[in-house]
Amino acid sequence: MSFFGKLFSGKKGEPQPTPSEAIQKLRDIENMLTKKQDFLEKKIELELDSARKNGTKNKRAAIQALKRKKRYEKQLQQIDGTLSTIEMQREALENANTNTAVLQTMKSASDALKAAHKDMNIDDVHDMMDDIAEQNEIANEISNAVSQAVGFQDVDEDELERELEELEQEELDKEMLGVTTPADTLPDVPSTELPEKAKEKKKQPVKEDDMDADMKELMSWAE
Fold this sequence. Notes:
InterPro entries: Snf7_fam (IPR005024). The chain has 223 residues and is mostly helical. It has seven helices and no strands. Among the domains are: 17-118, Helix Hairpins (Orthogonal Bundle); 120-151. Helix 2 packs antiparallel against helix 3 (59-116).
């Protein structure tokens, strides 16, 4: 069995890990291998320094240091390949996990849409829309009928213009002739004398001519 098979298969009868769990395990392995990379790179630098120091003094020790450096480099190369494989597998799992979530959401939305349309019939919808359009048309006709003035007849605009011109000409003629509108009728002159006038008459002496005339009239009436 391969390394990844041993890593994710588990014991027989155990439930398979979910995509999220598998992704997390791959990330843990990546972190572990990255730390080992850092360790090997440091070991390679140390062996290289040892080979330089012993190059002229101790040739045997220098060669052994270079051999260890080669082994570390080989291990580092293997880890690089393993990390590349793990990264590819993790990215594939992440994409698959994302696609699964998207498909599940789309399926849920599709089921909800089917449930919403379950009691709907396309013919009934068309009939309903036709009824709505018909009722709107009736409502518009009623509104137009109500908004029209009842018993109002159109007026001849030309006739009104002629009447207005006649009125203006009449006013102009009056201004030219100096004719003004007659004032209101004055009140009638009172028929009875004012009290002051009556007093003045009483104060005036009676003339003889007036007395003779009165006496003559009285005597003629007595006869």
